[in-house]
What does this fold into?
Amino acid sequence: MFDNQAARRKFARRSRTAGVAASVGAALIAVGVSALPAAGADTSSASRSAAALATAPAGPRLGSAGLMQSDDFFQQGLAPVRATVDLTGKQALSACSGEETMRELTRGKAAAYADVTWSFDAKDTSLTESVAEGSTDASAASYEKRLDKLVRGCQVEPHGHWHYGKGHAITGKAGEGIWYTAFNGDGKVAGGVAVIRSGHRFGIVELTGQPSDDPGFMEGITAGAVNRLAG
It folds into this structure.
């Protein structure tokens, strides 16, 4: 696992609430998760291809437990208030991706999806996370590269536009991640984004808002997300 003690020393601009919520872990319930019936969940063949299911690695299927939990935020200066979880992969990935979703990115071929939108007690601060389970480590690594390329496309913007800063890579036994600080048009820190992977699982996490004066808070969020994804 990552050394979160080190991370503690040291993402878009808008949150999107997922359409249909599914079951959530006890840590989410503890802070008032919005748990809605999964009546609108996509049960079509496109949601899980037969090929992906046939080759998916053995072990626990990706679910809400693979998402960030309330305990992951306190050391980053964030007090979670509410979370909405969705298991359909239909949440927009990031401010940089526009309306593209994880299901669209993977063309519905992932074995499983999980999304969450978190709100915090601080005004204009929220976090979205979208993860998926690939059929192999290699396929997950390929999607990881595509997500990172998408993020890097928003590093260079016209003067006065929000943008992502330099990428910072972290690795550990649980997996790996690349995080970027986000800056608003005035050049002030306004959150950040991270692309993460653990084995055959991959995803993206984006924070809107600044929980502290140290932009290194994104390292702690990235490490926490990778640890959960590996669980």
Summary: Helices lie at 4-9, 26-29, 50-55, 102-106, 137-152, 217-230.
